[in-house]
């Protein structure tokens, strides 16, 4: 059990790492928030709940500021994360949606698999359930076009499930154009944090929405491929698909 002092401290620090671990209900406004909500309530008015469901049952409404990604009108019936397997030409993937957004497109075999899955479910406060959805169908359709060489830009809405820093890095990744690469150092400079090369590399490695959030376009400054969740062959396959002329010139 987490101590009340720890919860109060998390709320004071707006600590995003506590998202999903407990919920902060405000007696005066009847609104329930995540611990990192920017709208700070008076401490004397708050009550803690371990799950969102308990708070909703007690009559609290989800905060519009910090819980945009939580369903507003489903009280007792928590939304699930629909998840389906997709066989891509470079490896098996898990494609999943939460509401009308894509929350995962990741390699089925990846050493951080269970850690990433736990984080996504905790962040969205929802459980995986095998199945499909409109977003998943559209995402797979776009992936098929991409692998056939007919699609360079994706237009599926995504929901990020990470810390503020991870989200900043992932948003930046979405700006790297098709067929180009940048180094971890350049990526760190892009987010105005040139010294954070290692942190940027680790945020890049924990991106759960591969291809749509193109972490494969980040390579070492020496043009080495470095690491990739789907394995180096998958990374090489994606880069060669996007830029056939680099194939065979021994860039890596
Ligand atoms: Zn809030």
TrEMBL record:
Reactions catalysed: a 4-O-methyl-thymidine in DNA + L-cysteinyl-[protein] = a thymidine in DNA + S-methyl-L-cysteinyl-[protein]; a 6-O-methyl-2'-deoxyguanosine in DNA + L-cysteinyl-[protein] = S-methyl-L-cysteinyl-[protein] + a 2'-deoxyguanosine in DNA
Xref: SUPFAM superfamilies: Ada DNA repair protein, N-terminal domain (N-Ada 10), Methylated DNA-protein cysteine methyltransferase domain, Methylated DNA-protein cysteine methyltransferase, C-terminal domain
Gene Ontology CC annotations of this record: cytoplasm
Example GO BP: DNA alkylation repair
Domain Methylguanine DNA methyltransferase ribonuclease-like: from-to ranges: 83-158
PROSITE patterns: MGMT
Residues covered by the Methylated-DNA-[protein]-cysteine S-methyltransferase DNA binding domain: 164-242
Localization terms from the record: Cytoplasm
GO molecular function: DNA binding; methylated-DNA-[protein]-cysteine S-methyltransferase activity; zinc ion binding
Keyword Ribonucleoprotein found: no
Stretches assigned to the Ada DNA repair metal-binding domain: 7-67
Entry keywords, A to Z: Activator, Cytoplasm, DNA damage, DNA repair, Methyltransferase, Transferase
CDD domains: ATase
Note from the entry: This enzyme catalyzes only one turnover and therefore is not strictly catalytic. According to one definition, an enzyme is a biocatalyst that acts repeatedly and over many reaction cycles.
NCBIfam families (alphabetical): ogt (TIGR00589)
UniProt function note: Involved in the cellular defense against the biological effects of O6-methylguanine (O6-MeG) and O4-methylthymine (O4-MeT) in DNA. Repairs the methylated nucleobase in DNA by stoichiometrically transferring the methyl group to a cysteine residue in the enzyme. This is a suicide reaction: the enzyme is irreversibly inactivated.
Homology family: Belongs to the MGMT family.
Protein name as it appears in the record: Methylated-DNA--protein-cysteine methyltransferase
């Amino acid at each position: 059990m987490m101590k009340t002092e720890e919860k109060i401290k998390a709320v004071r620090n707006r600590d995003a790492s506590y998202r999903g671990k407990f919920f902060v209900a405000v007696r005066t406004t009847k609104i329930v928030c995540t611990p990192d909500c920017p709208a700070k309530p008076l401490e004397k008015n708050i009550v803690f709940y371990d799950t969102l469901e308990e708070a909703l049952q007690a009559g609290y409404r989800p905060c519009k500021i910090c819980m945009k990604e939580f369903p507003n009108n489903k009280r007792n019936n928590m939304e699930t994360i629909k998840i389906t397997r997709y066989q891509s030409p470079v490896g098996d993937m898990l494609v999943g949606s939460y509401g009308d957004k894509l929350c995962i497109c990741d390699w089925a075999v990846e050493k951080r698999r269970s850690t990433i899955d736990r984080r996504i479910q905790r962040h969205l406060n929802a459980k995986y359930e095998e199945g499909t959805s409109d977003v998943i169908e559209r995402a797979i359709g776009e992936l098929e076009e991409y692998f056939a060489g007919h699609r360079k830009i994706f237009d599926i809405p995504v929901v990020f499930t990470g810390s503020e820093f991870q989200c900043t890095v992932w948003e930046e990744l979405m700006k790297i154009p098709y067929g180009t690469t940048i180094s971890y150092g350049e990526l760190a400079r892009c987010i105005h944090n040139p010294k954070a090369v290692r942190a940027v590399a680790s945020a890049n490695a924990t991106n759960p929405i591969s291809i749509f959030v193109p972490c494969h376009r980040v390579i070492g400054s020496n043009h080495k491929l470095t690491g990739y969740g789907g394995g180096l062959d998958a990374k090489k396959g994606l880069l060669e698909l996007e830029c056939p002329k680099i194939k065979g010139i021994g860039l890596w």
